[in-house]
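Researcher: Next entry in the queue.
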Amino acid sequence: MTSREAERQELERVIQLLGRHTRSGRLLEYVGTKYFQQQASQLTEFNIATEVFGRSPKSFDPTQDAVVRVEAHRLRKKLREIYEQNGDTHGVHITLPPGTYVPKFVPIPERDLGEGGGHGTLVTETSPASSSTYGTRKAVPRQALSWLLYLSSVVAVALLAVLAIAMRQPPPVAQPSGAILLSDARPFSVPLAPVSGQLTELHIMAGYSGSEIIDNSGVRWTPDRFFSGGGPWQREVGFVRGTSRPFLFENWRSGEFGYDIPVAPGSYELRLYFIAPHRPGDEKLASFDVFLNGQPLLTAFDVNTSAQGADVAEEQVFRDVVPDEDGYIRLRFTNQAGTPSLNALELVPGSPGKLKPIRITTQPTAFVDHKGQRWRADDYYFNGFRSAERRKVTGTDDPEIFGAERYGHFRYSIPVDVRGRYTVVLHFAEFYFGPQLPGGGGVGSRIFHVYCNGQTLLKDFDIYKEAGSLRLVTKTFHGIKPSAQGKINLTFEPVVNNATVSGIEILDESV
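Model: Structure for this entry, 511 residues:
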């Protein structure tokens, strides 16, 4: 049997165990079929929601409906249960790695049954080089069984004696050994070996140990590394608001811990990603400190307060991050009134004294415009709906970037370095109202307000009145101060029909 045939056979077997007409069975059959048809690129949240779970292509919005993420989590759990109960009888296992809907078929080595060929009773032991679940096992001769039992009893008695003596002794005092003593809340540094293989960019998921994941803007996120202390935890399934990349928040590193990252000389931008560890209604003070190269970076930082609630993605941004003299960027997370936690960490080359431009298109994929500027996929939004179709607009050299919209009553909370002042550029187009469009009407058909951090940017704004239909309108606002939490908060409030926006730019005004 070929490996492909074995994968197909295992897929069919597991579908039958799950039940072909259950939600988990339908989901596995769909993703498995796309996998074998070499159409893995079609395994998107939108396609699964509409083709497997019957959501409407016109109204489905993943920010409001988490059906795909919830069912994928259930499927992952059921797959683990299937293989834990009877995992050693099949040559291949199916997994659904976090952050993707593309199934993975993992070959499992067959166990060696020895000369008995599987007949008779065998006493087995796990090979030290193998895992306890899938390890190779060796037959233990029956005549040696009594000797092993005797030896085991002798070892057990000896261990009990040692334990009794140890319990009478005072606890040993830990001696310095080059490890991080994370119980000390003060900034600290650790002697490290000379830097080899310096980095210029890093995107890691804290507490995660699986395969790398590529997000909707093409960024490759890798498993956790360069850490000391703390422990990995998996977050309980739940909808994450304020992000288009919920996979970043499925795992975290928690406790007191540090990162020592070898980087090439230069100036960097640092982004730290968090999510509140408490459920709605269970919010409490849980502040901790973060140090960068021995200096305070975040003091008494409370994720819940900064994110304004539980289950909300939180991101903190810092420019002008430079390595220490030995070529390391050192981060330390220490207790204050709560236990530190981190979901992801991002380090990218920056411009000294100035945050790199943030450009967002209200579409599910990233774009590069005619000037070579990258527009990231829609992110940092709360509520509203994203249009499912793109239209041709005029008045711009990049119509494909502004050919869609987010509409309704919604807001964006875009993280920036709190020290800067920013220019906010908003791009609009009227896609629905006008004599030749589905909504008909014209002037006065759509009116809305736009607010930013307590300021009114636009009052009774009417796109059609300014430019008619399908023509880009750009509004620019200078000197915008971030909130105390380092956010540019944009609120789009309807007056007549829905508010809308097609693109957002945040530009640092620092010289």
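Model: Residues 358-508 form a domain with the Jelly Rolls fold (CATH 2.60.120.430).
Researcher: Noted, moving on.
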